[in-house]
Design brief:
The chain is built from 17 helices and eight strands. The protein is of the alpha+beta class. The chain has two domains: about 160 residues, no CATH class; about 240 residues, Up-down Bundle (Rhomboid-like fold). Strands 1, 2, 3, 4, 5, 6, 7 and 8 form an eight-stranded mixed β-sheet that branches. The chain is elongated, with a radius of gyration of 26 Å.
C-alpha cells in the first residue's frame, strides 16, 4: 500500500510544493532578469514575445503497457525581449516555452500516422498563433521535467541562441491563472492520500502481534531493556535503524544504498521531484534499446534509482517495514538472496512487458519480499505471531498496491507482478533450507537473550 499511495502522493505533493513555495517577483523589463535574484515566478511589465523567430523541436515516442500508443510532442521556444525594437540589439535572456502533444494508436498504418502527424502540426501552429498566448499573467521558471530537455533543444536550434547568448537557455512558461490560485486542488489531494495512508497504518496498529513483533526485534538484538522509539527518541531511533547491525544488516544496507544513490543524483544536478526519462536512463534505469546493446547491468541498477523524493521515501518506508520483519527471523543471507532474485525477476518482466518504457525503483524487489511473506503465511508451522505480522505487512500491502496500480497512471505493475511471483516461488523453493529459523518456538529465542520489554 505505501508504494502506490506514494505514487499518487508524489504527483500531488510535488506539484503543491513546487507551486506554493516561492514568491512572485516583479520586474519592469526583461533586461532586469540577469541582474535579478533567481526565483521561480516572474511578473514582467514590459515583455515582447518574438514569435517571428521562434524555434521548434519535435519528438515521437512509444508508450503504453502494450506499446500501443504513439506520442507526438512539439516544443517551441520563443525569444523574450523588453520591446520589439530590442530584437536586433539585445541578447536573449529568456525563452518562452510552449508544448503541444498528440497521441494516436501505434498500430495505425504508416499513411494514417503521417496524416495524424500533419494534422497535429497544423493544430499546434494554430494554437501557437492564437493572440491569447501573449496575454499571460506571469511566468514560471521551468525546472527539470519531461518537457525541459525539449525546450532546451528547441532554443539551441534558434540562430538567436548562437548569436545573442552563450549561457544555458532560461525557459519561462506562461501562466494564465491568477498567482493566488496556482495550487488548484493539489492541497486537497494531499490530504486525501495522507488520510488513506493513515487509515491503512491505523488498521495495522490494531493488531498487537505486529506491534509486539517489531518491539521484540528492536529489543532482542540489543540484549537490553528496550521499548519502541517514542517522543524525543523517535528520530534518533529511526537513524539507528539505518546503521547496519545484528538483525538488520541487509535491510540497513539496502536502505542506505537507495538513499545514497538518490543523494548522489541530487548533487549531480538532478531535480528532486520530477526527473526526466533521459536522466533516469543515464543513471541506470531499465530501457529496452540500451539493454539490447549489452547493458545488462541495468537489470540491477534500476532497482536503486528513483524518479523523485516521494517515490524514494515511500519505497524506503515499505522496505524498512518488510525488511526488518523478515531479516530478524531469516537472517541477512536469505533476505538478500530473495531481494535480488525478485529484483531480477521484476526487471525482466518489466522489460518484456514494455521494452520501450523507462522503469526505475525498488518496488519490484519489495514486492518480492511480499511474495516471500505470502509463502510463509501459507505454512502453519511458522510461528503464529510472526505469521500475523506477515499477513498484514505482506498480503495487505500487495493486494491494495496491485489494485491501485491498475487504476493510477505511471505505475509499473508488470515489475510488481514479476517481483511478487519471484518472491513467492523463492519462498516455496527455499523454505526447507531456512524453516528451522522461523518454526522454532518463540520463547526459546526470547530465553536466550532474556530481554525485558516496556510497554505503555
Amino acid at each position: 500500500m505505501p508504494v502506490l499511495i506514494g505514487v499518487a502522493t508524489s504527483t500531488n505533493t510535488n506539484k503543491y510544493l513546487t507551486t506554493s513555495l516561492g514568491k512572485l517577483s516583479s520586474m519592469h523589463s526583461m533586461e532586469e532578469l540577469p541582474r535579478h535574484e533567481p526565483t521561480r515566478y516572474y511578473a514582467v511589465r514590459n515583455c515582447w514575445v518574438d514569435r517571428l523567430h521562434a524555434s521548434y523541436y519535435s519528438t515521437s515516442s512509444i508508450s503504453g503497457k502494450h506499446n500501443d500508443r504513439l506520442n507526438f510532442d512539439l516544443y517551441v521556444s520563443t525569444p523574450l525581449f523588453s520591446t520589439a525594437a530590442d530584437t536586433a540589439l539585445s541578447p536573449v535572456v529568456a525563452w518562452l516555452g510552449t508544448t503541444y502533444h498528440e497521441q494516436i494508436s501505434a498500430r495505425s498504418s504508416e499513411d494514417e500516422k503521417e496524416a495524424a502527424y500533419r494534422s497535429f502540426i497544423q493544430r499546434a501552429e494554430k494554437e501557437y498563433n492564437d493572440p491569447q498566448l501573449v496575454n499571460f499573467l506571469y511566468l514560471t521558471r521551468a525546472s527539470n521535467s519531461t518537457e525541459f530537455d525539449g525546450y532546451q533543444a528547441s532554443a539551441r536550434l534558434s540562430p538567436y541562441f548562437h548569436r545573442k547568448t552563450t549561457v544555458q537557455p532560461l525557459i519561462l512558461l506562461p501562466e494564465f491563472t491568477p498567482f493566488e490560485q496556482r495550487s488548484g486542488k493539489s492541497f486537497q489531494w494531499i490530504f486525501l492520500w495522507l488520510a488513506i495512508g493513515s487509515l491503512g497504518f491505523s488498521f495495522m496498529l490494531i493488531f498487537p502481534s505486529l506491534h509486539l513483533e517489531a518491539e521484540q526485534v528492536y529489543g532482542q538484538k540489543r540484549g537490553r531493556q528496550q521499548s519502541l522509539p517514542q517522543h524525543d527518541d523517535d528520530l534518533k531511533s529511526l537513524l539507528g535503524f539505518l546503521k547496519p547491525g545484528p538483525g538488520h544488516w541487509a535491510t540497513s544496507f539496502l536502505l542506505l544504498a537507495n538513499l545514497l544513490v538518490f543523494v548522489w543524483m541530487l548533487f549531480s544536478g538532478v531535480g528532486p521531484f520530477s526527473i526526466q526519462p533521459a536522466e533516469l536512463i543515464n543513471w541506470g534505469g531499465i530501457y529496452g534499446p540500451a539493454i539490447e546493446k549489452g547493458q545488462l547491468w541495468r537489470i540491477i541498477t534500476a532497482g536503486f534509482v528513483h524518479a523523485g523524493v516521494m517515490h524514494l521515501i515511500n519505497n524506503l518506508a515499505t522496505l524498512g517495514l518488510l525488511g526488518y520483519l523478515l531479516e530478524e527471523k531469516m537472517g541477512f543471507k536469505w533476505l538478500t538472496l530473495v531481494y535480488f532474485l525478485a529484483l531480477v525477476g521484476a526487471s525482466y518482466t518489466s522489460l518484456w512487458w514494455h521494452p520501450n518504457t523507462v522503469s526505475v525503483g525498488a518496488s519490484g524487489a519489495i514486492f518480492g519480499l511480499t511474495g516471500l511473506c505470502i509463502s510463509l503465511v501459507l505454512r502453519p508451522q511458522v510461528q503464529e505471531e510472526f505469521r500475523g505480522g506477515l499477513l498484514i505487512a505482506g498480503i495487505l500491502f500487495s493486494g491494495i498496491s496491485l489494485l491501485l496500480g491498475f487504476v493510477l497512471p505511471g505505475v509499473d505493475n508488470a515489475a510488481h507482478l514479476g517481483g511478487l511471483t519471484t518472491g513467492l516461488l523463492a519462498g516455496l523453493v527455499f523454505y526447507p533450507l531456512f524453516k528451522h529459523k522461523i518454526t522454532e518456538h518463540p520463547t526459546r529465542r526470547m530465553h536466550q537473550s532474556k530481554p525485558q520489554y516496556v510497554r505503555d
